[in-house]
Write a structure and sequence with these properties.
The structure holds 2 protein chains of 2 kinds. Chain A has no helices and 11 strands. By secondary structure, chain A is mostly beta strands. Chain B is mainly beta. Classes of the chains: A mainly beta, B mainly beta.
Protein backbone atom coordinates (compact mmCIF):
# COMPACT_ATOMS: atom_id res chain seq x y z
CA UNK A 1 0.00 0.00 0.00
CA UNK A 2 1.58 3.25 -1.20
CA UNK A 3 -0.54 5.48 1.02
CA UNK A 4 -2.02 7.25 -2.02
CA UNK A 5 -5.75 6.71 -2.41
CA UNK A 6 -7.88 7.19 -5.49
CA UNK A 7 -11.60 7.06 -5.95
CA UNK A 8 -13.52 5.68 -7.65
CA UNK A 9 -11.74 2.50 -8.70
CA UNK A 10 -13.85 2.10 -11.80
CA UNK A 11 -16.00 4.55 -13.72
CA UNK A 12 -18.19 3.84 -16.72
CA UNK A 13 -19.82 6.76 -18.47
CA UNK A 14 -21.10 7.87 -21.85
CA UNK A 15 -19.56 10.13 -24.45
CA UNK A 16 -20.15 13.81 -23.82
CA UNK A 17 -20.37 13.39 -20.06
CA UNK A 18 -18.21 14.88 -17.32
CA UNK A 19 -16.51 13.00 -14.49
CA UNK A 20 -14.36 13.84 -11.48
CA UNK A 21 -11.53 11.66 -10.26
CA UNK A 22 -10.27 12.13 -6.73
CA UNK A 23 -6.84 11.58 -5.20
CA UNK A 24 -5.54 11.83 -1.66
CA UNK A 25 -1.74 11.97 -1.40
CA UNK A 26 0.42 10.27 1.19
CA UNK A 27 0.50 12.00 4.53
CA UNK A 28 3.10 14.76 4.38
CA UNK A 29 3.40 14.84 0.58
CA UNK A 30 2.76 18.25 -0.95
CA UNK A 31 3.04 17.39 -4.64
CA UNK A 32 0.37 15.58 -6.60
CA UNK A 33 0.81 14.35 -10.16
CA UNK A 34 -1.74 12.99 -12.60
CA UNK A 35 -0.87 10.45 -15.30
CA UNK A 36 -2.91 8.78 -18.00
CA UNK A 37 -2.17 5.20 -19.05
CA UNK A 38 -3.68 4.12 -22.33
CA UNK A 39 -2.84 1.30 -24.72
CA UNK A 40 -1.80 3.58 -27.56
CA UNK A 41 -0.11 6.40 -25.63
CA UNK A 42 1.50 4.53 -22.76
CA UNK A 43 2.00 6.41 -19.50
CA UNK A 44 1.70 10.15 -20.05
CA UNK A 45 2.16 12.93 -17.54
CA UNK A 46 -0.83 15.26 -17.37
CA UNK A 47 -0.29 17.83 -14.63
CA UNK A 48 1.41 18.53 -11.30
CA UNK A 49 0.28 20.53 -8.30
CA UNK A 50 2.39 21.55 -5.36
CA UNK A 51 0.76 22.82 -2.19
CA UNK A 52 -2.31 24.00 -4.06
CA UNK A 53 -0.60 25.59 -7.04
CA UNK A 54 -0.10 24.27 -10.54
CA UNK A 55 3.57 23.54 -11.16
CA UNK A 56 3.88 21.71 -14.46
CA UNK A 57 1.70 20.73 -17.35
CA UNK A 58 2.15 17.87 -19.73
CA UNK A 59 -0.08 16.49 -22.46
CA UNK A 60 -3.32 17.53 -20.84
CA UNK A 61 -6.26 18.30 -23.07
CA UNK A 62 -8.19 21.54 -22.69
CA UNK A 63 -11.26 19.46 -21.82
CA UNK A 64 -9.41 18.29 -18.71
CA UNK A 65 -8.70 20.35 -15.63
CA UNK A 66 -7.41 19.70 -12.16
CA UNK A 67 -7.02 21.38 -8.82
CA UNK A 68 -5.48 20.74 -5.44
CA UNK A 69 -7.39 21.75 -2.35
CA UNK A 70 -6.14 23.16 0.98
CA UNK A 71 -6.24 19.69 2.52
CA UNK A 72 -3.94 18.64 -0.36
CA UNK A 73 -6.32 16.23 -2.01
CA UNK A 74 -6.64 16.70 -5.75
CA UNK A 75 -9.38 16.27 -8.32
CA UNK A 76 -9.07 15.70 -12.04
CA UNK A 77 -12.08 16.82 -14.03
CA UNK A 78 -12.68 15.34 -17.47
CA UNK A 79 -15.43 16.85 -19.59
CA UNK A 80 -17.00 16.29 -23.01
CA UNK A 81 -15.71 12.77 -22.79
CA UNK A 82 -14.74 10.88 -25.92
CA UNK A 83 -14.16 7.19 -26.50
CA UNK A 84 -10.43 7.86 -26.66
CA UNK A 85 -10.42 9.13 -23.10
CA UNK A 86 -10.92 5.58 -21.86
CA UNK A 87 -7.79 4.85 -19.84
CA UNK A 88 -6.34 4.21 -16.44
CA UNK A 89 -5.71 7.46 -14.59
CA UNK A 90 -3.05 7.42 -11.93
CA UNK A 91 -2.33 9.88 -9.22
CA UNK A 92 1.10 10.04 -7.61
CA UNK A 93 2.51 12.07 -4.76
CA UNK A 94 5.92 13.11 -3.52
CA UNK A 95 7.21 15.20 -0.69
CA UNK A 96 9.08 17.76 -2.77
CA UNK A 97 8.16 20.15 -5.52
CA UNK A 98 10.57 19.43 -8.32
CA UNK A 99 13.50 17.48 -6.98
CA UNK A 100 13.95 14.52 -9.26
CA UNK A 101 15.56 12.36 -6.59
CA UNK A 102 12.42 12.13 -4.50
CA UNK A 103 10.33 9.04 -5.00
CA UNK A 104 6.87 9.25 -6.43
CA UNK A 105 4.26 7.04 -4.83
CA UNK A 106 1.46 5.90 -7.09
CA UNK A 107 -2.14 5.25 -6.27
CA UNK A 108 -4.03 2.19 -7.55
CA UNK A 109 -5.60 4.18 -10.37
CA UNK A 110 -9.10 4.89 -11.64
CA UNK A 111 -10.17 2.94 -14.68
CA UNK A 112 -12.38 5.11 -16.87
CA UNK A 113 -14.45 3.53 -19.59
CA UNK A 114 -16.30 5.80 -21.98
CA UNK A 115 -19.03 4.09 -23.99
CA UNK B 1 13.01 16.68 -24.29
CA UNK B 2 13.49 13.65 -22.08
CA UNK B 3 12.70 10.20 -23.38
CA UNK B 4 13.04 6.57 -22.33
CA UNK B 5 13.33 3.62 -24.68
CA UNK B 6 12.64 0.15 -23.38
CA UNK B 7 13.23 -3.21 -24.88
CA UNK B 8 10.09 -4.35 -26.61
CA UNK B 9 8.17 -7.21 -25.17
CA UNK B 10 6.57 -9.39 -24.34
CA UNK B 11 9.28 -11.44 -22.68
CA UNK B 12 8.58 -15.04 -21.72
CA UNK B 13 11.00 -16.97 -19.53
CA UNK B 14 11.08 -20.20 -17.61
CA UNK B 15 11.35 -20.12 -13.85
CA UNK B 16 14.94 -19.61 -12.61
CA UNK B 17 16.06 -18.09 -15.91
CA UNK B 18 18.16 -14.93 -16.08
CA UNK B 19 16.31 -11.72 -16.87
CA UNK B 20 17.53 -8.60 -18.65
CA UNK B 21 15.24 -5.77 -19.71
CA UNK B 22 17.08 -3.05 -21.57
CA UNK B 23 16.44 0.61 -20.95
CA UNK B 24 18.18 3.61 -22.50
CA UNK B 25 17.38 7.25 -21.99
CA UNK B 26 17.84 10.71 -23.40
CA UNK B 27 17.89 13.60 -20.98
CA UNK B 28 19.49 16.94 -20.29
CA UNK B 29 21.51 17.18 -17.14
CA UNK B 30 21.70 14.33 -14.68
CA UNK B 31 18.36 12.62 -14.23
CA UNK B 32 17.36 10.12 -11.59
CA UNK B 33 16.41 6.72 -12.96
CA UNK B 34 13.72 4.34 -11.76
CA UNK B 35 12.20 0.95 -12.43
CA UNK B 36 8.54 0.45 -11.59
CA UNK B 37 6.54 -2.77 -11.63
CA UNK B 38 2.83 -3.08 -12.34
CA UNK B 39 1.07 -6.30 -11.40
CA UNK B 40 -2.22 -7.12 -13.12
CA UNK B 41 -5.01 -4.82 -12.00
CA UNK B 42 -2.75 -2.79 -9.74
CA UNK B 43 -0.93 0.53 -9.70
CA UNK B 44 2.77 1.20 -10.15
CA UNK B 45 5.17 0.15 -7.45
CA UNK B 46 8.69 1.49 -7.23
CA UNK B 47 11.08 -1.42 -7.69
CA UNK B 48 14.43 0.37 -7.48
CA UNK B 49 16.13 3.65 -8.23
CA UNK B 50 19.50 5.28 -8.84
CA UNK B 51 20.13 8.97 -8.56
CA UNK B 52 23.66 9.40 -9.92
CA UNK B 53 26.09 7.79 -12.32
CA UNK B 54 27.45 4.37 -11.32
CA UNK B 55 24.83 3.98 -8.58
CA UNK B 56 23.33 0.52 -8.41
CA UNK B 57 19.73 0.19 -7.35
CA UNK B 58 18.61 -3.18 -6.00
CA UNK B 59 15.49 -4.72 -4.51
CA UNK B 60 13.95 -8.20 -4.30
CA UNK B 61 16.79 -9.70 -6.33
CA UNK B 62 16.47 -7.12 -9.12
CA UNK B 63 19.39 -4.82 -9.94
CA UNK B 64 20.09 -1.95 -12.29
CA UNK B 65 23.19 0.22 -12.66
CA UNK B 66 23.10 3.85 -13.81
CA UNK B 67 25.50 3.99 -16.76
CA UNK B 68 26.00 7.56 -17.86
CA UNK B 69 28.46 6.70 -20.62
CA UNK B 70 25.93 4.48 -22.37
CA UNK B 71 22.83 6.33 -21.05
CA UNK B 72 21.43 3.02 -19.89
CA UNK B 73 19.71 1.51 -16.85
CA UNK B 74 19.16 -2.15 -17.68
CA UNK B 75 17.12 -4.25 -15.25
CA UNK B 76 18.51 -7.68 -14.31
CA UNK B 77 17.56 -10.59 -12.10
CA UNK B 78 19.54 -13.75 -11.76
CA UNK B 79 16.67 -16.18 -11.24
CA UNK B 80 13.09 -15.17 -12.00
CA UNK B 81 10.01 -16.63 -10.34
CA UNK B 82 6.45 -17.02 -11.54
CA UNK B 83 5.49 -14.24 -9.13
CA UNK B 84 7.72 -11.81 -11.08
CA UNK B 85 5.25 -11.88 -13.96
CA UNK B 86 4.22 -8.25 -14.43
CA UNK B 87 4.79 -5.17 -16.57
CA UNK B 88 8.05 -3.34 -15.91
CA UNK B 89 8.51 0.36 -16.61
CA UNK B 90 11.75 2.28 -16.83
CA UNK B 91 11.41 5.96 -15.94
CA UNK B 92 13.46 9.08 -15.42
CA UNK B 93 13.03 12.36 -13.62
CA UNK B 94 15.13 15.39 -14.37
CA UNK B 95 17.14 16.97 -11.55
CA UNK B 96 14.67 19.83 -11.24
CA UNK B 97 11.59 18.23 -12.68
CA UNK B 98 8.91 16.61 -10.62
CA UNK B 99 7.24 14.67 -13.41
CA UNK B 100 8.37 11.24 -14.55
CA UNK B 101 8.96 10.21 -18.14
CA UNK B 102 8.19 6.55 -18.73
CA UNK B 103 9.18 3.95 -21.25
CA UNK B 104 6.46 1.92 -22.96
CA UNK B 105 6.70 -0.93 -20.49
CA UNK B 106 7.85 -4.53 -20.95
CA UNK B 107 5.52 -7.40 -20.14
CA UNK B 108 7.27 -10.31 -18.45
CA UNK B 109 5.68 -13.73 -18.19
CA UNK B 110 7.48 -16.42 -16.19
CA UNK B 111 6.35 -19.99 -16.75
CA UNK B 112 6.83 -22.77 -14.20
Amino acid sequence: DSGVTQTPKHLITATGQRVTLRCSPRSGDLSVYWYQQSLDQGLQFLIQYYNGEERAKGNILERFSAQQFPDLHSELNLSSLELGDSALYFCASSVGEGQGTYEQYFGPGTRLTVT
Amino acid sequence: GNSVTQMEGPVTLSEEAFLTINCTYTATGYPSLFWYVQYPGEGLQLLLKATKADDKGSNKGFEATYRKETTSFHLEKGSVQVSDSAVYFCALRGPNAGKSTFGDGTTLTVKP
